[in-house]
Every structure is written in C-alpha cells, then in structure tokens.
Q: What sequence folds into this?
C-alpha cells in the first residue's frame, strides 16, 4: 500500500515525504495575512458577517449588468455639473498644491494658462499656490482621468451614462504621446492639442453620437480584448473600433471633424483609454454605497498619494504614499531616480475586469514588458485570486473565452497579502513627460484600513 | 538497469513495451506516401536532387525579403495591362462557360451587365456562352481574386508592387457581405456597390496613397496577426489598420471619399482580404520560375477545378476537381447539397505564411469554427509539417512570437500525404451568396503531379 498525502504550505515536510517515495500533493497554503493577529481578527470578523457577502453578491450582479454608454463629448465646463469658476480637477485623492507631484503641477498650470486665468506658467503657479485657482479631485465631481487627469473647463471630455443605475461619468480626452497634459507636459503644443480636441474633435464625436446613437463602451472593450488589448496599457484595437463605430456618422454630420480626428487617432493608440476609464467609473460608481460591500470601488493615485475607496464606505478615501511603478522599463537615460510616483485614476479599470485582470488577453503587452504569454496568464491568475467573480462580458481568447477576473475583494487582498496589479505608464518626477512603463502594485495598507473601517462600521450597526 | 526505447510508428510495440514497464518514447513515423512505390520512387529522386533544395532555399529567402507595397487603386481597365476589349477575369484555373460554377457565372454575368455589354442578365449569359465576351483567369494577367474573383474593366482593384523583384499584382476590392460580386450575387445592389467602389472609394485611396506614399501590406498583416486576424478568414484588424493608415491623407486630399469608405469598411470586416491577396500574389510571383523549386506558388480554385502551380514550373497548372469545403458551418437551412466547390484565388495566402498557417493567431476564428485555441495551434502545426521555414515577419502571439509556417514544399506534401488547409467561405452552388464557412483542403493529386513533372523536367536537363 502506498501513501497519498496532501501537505499544506509546509514545503519541507512535502520534500521529506517525497524523498521517501510517497505520493505528495503540495497545496500552497499559508496562514492568512501572514499570521498577523490583528489581521486574522479582522478577517475572522469580515468573513463571518453575512452582510458583506450579500453586499458583494449585489455588487458583482451590478457590475455584470452595467451597460455604460458613450452618449456625448464636449467641453468639460459645459458638461460636468459643479465645474464652475476657477477650478482645476486632477487625478487621485485630494492633494494640496505644495504636495502635488511634478507632472500634475505642470499639467495644472498649463490648464490655467489655457483658460486665460494667468498670462504665463509662472503666474499660473502663483495662482495655484495662492488658491485663486482651486484644485479638486476628478472623483469629487464624478469624473476620472488618466495619469495627471487634469480637467479645466476648456478640456474635452467623454460623457458616459449607465441608465441601469442612473450614473453619469466623465473623463478627459487622451491627448496623445509626447507633449500632452495627461503626461504632465506644459508646452504651447500641449495647449494647442487641447484646443483642437475641444473645438474640433469632441464636437465631431458629439454630432456623430447624436446622429447614430450611443456606443456600448464595455461591449467595445470586449471586442478589443479579443484583438490583443488589455484595455489599460494597450488600446490599439479599442481606438480603431471606436473610430470604425463613429466614422460613418461623423463623415456625414460633422465632416470638418474627420481630418483632426483621423490625425489624432492614427498617432495615438491610447486614444480610447479615457473612454474606457469613464465607462468603468460609471459601472463602479453603481456599486458605491452598497451596505457592507467589501469590493474596492476605486484605486486612485496622484503621484504623491495612492488612495482606495471601498464600496461599502462611500465617503472615505484611504491613502498611503504612492509607490514607484514596479517591473519598470525606462526609455534610455532614465531610472527610478527620475520616476514620479504611480499616478492616475486609471487603476479603477483593474477593479472592473480590465487592465491587469485582462493581461492574458494581450501577448503584446506581455512582450512589451519583456515577458511571455505565461507571465501574462500569471498576472491574470493573481488578479483572479483576489476577485469574487469572472466577467460574463470580457472573455480571454487564449483561455478559450474564460472570463476575466471581475471585482477586487478587500478581504481576499488582506488575507493573501495581495493587491491589484496596475498596467501603467511612468512620468518624469520633475519634468513631466512619459519616461517608461511597468506594473504598479496598489499598496496593501489602505485596503486593510478600509476593510477595518468597514468591519468597524458594521459592528456599530 | 532500465531500458530506454524509441519506437517509430508502431503503436502496438510501444504499448507492449510500456506495459512491461520500459520507458518508451513513441515517434510518430509512417512510411512515406503511405508506402506507395511510385511515390516513394518520386520522393527518392526529389530529395536526392540538390537543385530542388537550392531552389527552395532561394525561394524562402525571396519570400522573407519580399516587401509588396500598396501603391494605388482604381479601375481595373485603367490599371491591369492586357485587360482589354470584352474580357472578364475570374478566380481559379481556366474554365469554359459551360463548366463554370454557379456563383462565378452569376458574378460574371453581372459584370457584363455593369459594363453595358448586355442589356440584362439573360443577354449576358448568351454573350458569355457565345464567347462575344471572353473569359480568362485573373492569374493570366497577374491578378488574383477572392471567391468568384470576377474582374471586368469597371471593377475597382488594388495595385501592389514589390520592387524587390519588380512584380506588380492586382486584386478586386472586396465588396462586402450579402449582395456582392465576390459572393456570386448578380443583383442591382451588387452592381451599385461596384460603382461606388470604382467611382468613389478607389479614387479616394489612390489620392491618399499618392499624398502619403505606399503602405507596406505584409507589415500591416503582421500587426493584424497580433490582433487576432488569421489574414484569410478574419481581416477585422487588418481592415481597421488600413483605414487608420490611409484616413488622414484621404480626409485631407479626397474628403468626398471618406463617407463611402467609412460606410463600406465599417460594415465589411473582410475589406482588406483582397489587399492581402494582392500582396501575397506579388510576393509569391517572385518565386515563380526559380529553377528546381518545389514550393507551391499558387493554389487556385474556381468552384469547378482546383489547381496548383509549382514555382519551378512557371507555365503549368495541375488540376483536380474542386473539393467541398471541410468542417463546414452552414447558415440555417443549408447543407453540403447546396454548397459550391471550393472557390477563389485566396488560398495563395496559405503559401505565404497566412491563413491556415496563422490559425494559432486567431482564437476568434477557432471559436467561430467551433474549436479551441489548441485546435487552431494544431492547424498551424499541420501547416508547419509541410513548410520549409518559419516566417521572420509573421509572429504568433500565443506562441511568444514564433513565426508562422512559411511556404509549402510539394515534397513534404507528397511524403506526408498532407496538403495546405484553407480557411475559407462557402457559396451557394446555384444561387450564389455565402451560405457558410469552413476549412478546405487542397487536393493532393495535382501537388503530386506537379512534383512528378518537376522531377521529370530536372531529369531531362
């Protein structure tokens, strides 16, 4: 008779048994939260509370059912309620001018010049420092932006509406490689691009959308995943699909917009990124406020701080210092010493089944990061280990259509000591501009703090 | 001491040894050409002749180096030398009107009406039967077409030029789903589409190409493979990449062409197929005439006959009856009884590293055919077993960039009893129109006949 033995976590025992010829199945078990007693106590309470499980089930159902539609585009000042007076919105949690990261300051001051609120960049700095131009997070008005995420009234934005939960979300148009607000560049060219987008391209999209009707953004993302996008670091297919959807109506109803749109989209494979961000923000806003829900609704960084909002605690951000982006690939001549901290509201897409969750969809991103398809599948598997469900909408072609991991459960993050990976770019710390890309990891501390606060709040009721 | 044994082909022996506890590596060996003595004699001569090996090496080098560029578009009658008088070109080898397949006859007679050579379809039939309108293969004038492949002077064609070998090739624009010449539909709508393409869309592309310069077609295909196309049955990405490349110049220099182009390409995921065909034809024409070369240059079907041209014998087609398409998926209500024989010049792309050779690039095509990614990889592996090389240009994302099988060696086809698979559509036998899709297999007989003729010709010199 031969022994069949399962061991859990203790590799030394498995090796010893294996050396003695026994058939051993080693299960990768570790004590939850590394055995930390406070965390174990927190998790015990969190797993025991049926209200959390019920809230999460409701949240997953809402995320599966969400259908955010691109309904319009135009000037932020005309479209975002509350964007009034001399106000500049930015990615990430609230941050004072003094603590704001270099690239975000640069994009903010360029916006101030563009709006005519200051005559030059130095005067813009002074106005922002003095508070005569105010700052607020994009999220404070229901918007979200990529990288610096700067929105002032003259910035072009997408309007996405999820009728399912009556949520609207906005995101600034992605202004391309090189001299661009989203990358923290404050040049005349970056201002010129904003004007072209607000005055020509966005009105063209808006006219086309009015004529043809709204575009189902997450259905478009699902197609893009089947074409090698991860819908965070790569949006080549999504951008082309968007143009294909809208071009006939634009050519008919706003022909003057076709040339600038063609020029902008042909040279900007990230163009559809912020549309995805707006759509995911709308879907995720639909779970914010579900009682007891331990899913991470938003991950949001401003280059200085990284913040997390948990769905069951709608009014609080939990923050930690923004980490540097991991596994970095830098342009020649740049290193960690030049890198700004992780930045942008875009990491919310990782909470909605895209980005790192969809890594296995994009061998191209894997190859860009210097890895193999298996590395990409491993990243998706890691996201699956902290996800409560699989998307019914986003299939992974190389896994014969298996859904991407959907949602991020703070309980699983704390238990496994894992947080969402974020496929993202890297900006220069002081000069702005993109100097590389890599995979950031959201800090664990604010996720644990958020879960503790949720469990505490449930205990009080 | 334990035995390590390799067995070749004889599974019973491997199983018996395995049952006795020996470590067995089973090699899948079969006698060449099923042990047929004539074929074994042919292969013995073919493998012994250094001129064949040298010719094939040269052919592979030329295929790797070919760089067919899209240089223009317009009316076939203005662009294809020799397309003069009342002449209609068709896919496949030469065929008389009486033996021509139903869909090809329908498209041919619609072209005759469009040209004004007959007042209606019946009169067109009569003119074609009487020979007052002549028929000739596309290949006879350096062109190649998808499915029916009908070209008359007013049909819009792509012009592709490979300066490397000074070859030009042409292919008719793909006129979309439903009522289309390439699908054998002879309706007023199919004629209207041809007019729109020749009078509006093709001139728009031509103006754009003049302004921006040529497009590297196989580089575009390489990008499309990374986005889930196989570049035969699926051209979604290639079509969008083509539009992205050309749209800025078109919007600037031929704005009137944008609307019809947007409408045609938004609704026609196969639009770039015939551009790929023209480019592959140019690349493959570059190996035609290499002394001793046993690579299959063209596979060409007209719904009645299937034909093969081997590169070392530039002036001969070897034919067999066109098979039905295998693994068929039919629209509801259709069956094999309704299916025309395998049709189109498109199978030449399988000789150039695309289509079935690139099956593993397209989980979408695999899923459409009802299979898994592994089935798609198996199809690519089968193509690799008869290919002399791997493409240095076309990478397979799910195999971490491994090249697609490039070229088809008639020697390997005969030895293994295998011929190229062809990812293709199925037309209605009498009525025209697409009724399904599947994977055709080129017949072995003409490949063996071609190899025998090549070896015979080498023996005479």
A:
């Amino acid at each position: 008779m031969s022994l069949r033995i399962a061991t859990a976590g203790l590799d030394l025992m498995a090796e010893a048994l294996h050396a003695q010829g026994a058939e051993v199945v080693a299960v990768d078990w570790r004590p939850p939260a590394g055995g930390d007693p406070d965390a174990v106590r927190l998790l015990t309470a969190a797993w025991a509370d049926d209200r959390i499980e019920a809230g999460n089930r409701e949240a997953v159902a809402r995320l599966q059912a969400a259908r955010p539609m691109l309904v319009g585009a135009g000037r932020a000042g005309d479209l975002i309620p509350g964007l009034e007076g001399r106000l500049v919105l930015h990615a990430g949690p609230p941050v004072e001018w003094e603590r704001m990261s270099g690239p975000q300051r640069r994009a903010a001051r360029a916006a101030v010049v563009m709006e005519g609120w200051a005559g030059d960049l130095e005067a813009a700095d002074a106005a922002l420092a003095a508070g005569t131009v105010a700052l607020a997070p994009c999220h404070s008005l229901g918007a979200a932006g990529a990288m610096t995420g700067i929105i002032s009234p003259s910035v072009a934005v997408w309007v996405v509406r999820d009728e399912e939960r009556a949520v609207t979300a906005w995101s600034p148009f992605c202004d391309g490689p090189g001299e661009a607000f989203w990358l923290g560049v404050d040049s005349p060219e970056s201002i010129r691009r904003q004007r072209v987008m607000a005055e020509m391209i966005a009105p063209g999209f808006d006219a086309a959308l009015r004529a043809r009707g709204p575009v189902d953004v997450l259905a478009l993302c699902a197609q893009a995943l089947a074409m090698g996008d991860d819908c965070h670091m790569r949006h080549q297919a999504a951008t082309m699909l968007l143009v294909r959807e809208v071009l006939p109506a634009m050519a008919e109803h706003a022909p003057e917009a076709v040339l600038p749109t063609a020029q902008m989209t042909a040279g900007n494979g990230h163009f559809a990124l912020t549309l995805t961000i707006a759509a995911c923000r709308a879907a995720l806003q639909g779970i914010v406020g579900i009682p007891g829900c331990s899913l991470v609704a938003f991950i949001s960084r401003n280059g200085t701080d990284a913040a997390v909002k948990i769905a069951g605690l709608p009014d609080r951000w939990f923050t930690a210092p923004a980490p540097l982006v991991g596994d970095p690939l830098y342009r020649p001549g740049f290193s960690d010493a030049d890198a700004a901290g992780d930045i942008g509201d875009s990491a919310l897409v990782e909470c909605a089944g895209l980005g790192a969750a969809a890594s296995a969809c994009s061998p191209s991103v894997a190859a860009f990061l210097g890895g193999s398809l298996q590395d990409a599948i491993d990243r998706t598997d890691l996201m699956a280990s902290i996800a409560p469900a699989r998307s019914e909408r986003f299939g992974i072609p190389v896994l014969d259509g298996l859904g991407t991991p959907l949602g991020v459960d703070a309980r699983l993050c704390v238990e496994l000591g894992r947080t969402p990976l974020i496929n993202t770019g890297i900006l220069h710390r002081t000069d702005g501009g993109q100097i590389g890309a890599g995979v950031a990891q959201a800090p664990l501390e604010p996720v644990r703090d958020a879960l503790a606060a949720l469990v505490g709040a449930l205990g009080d009721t």
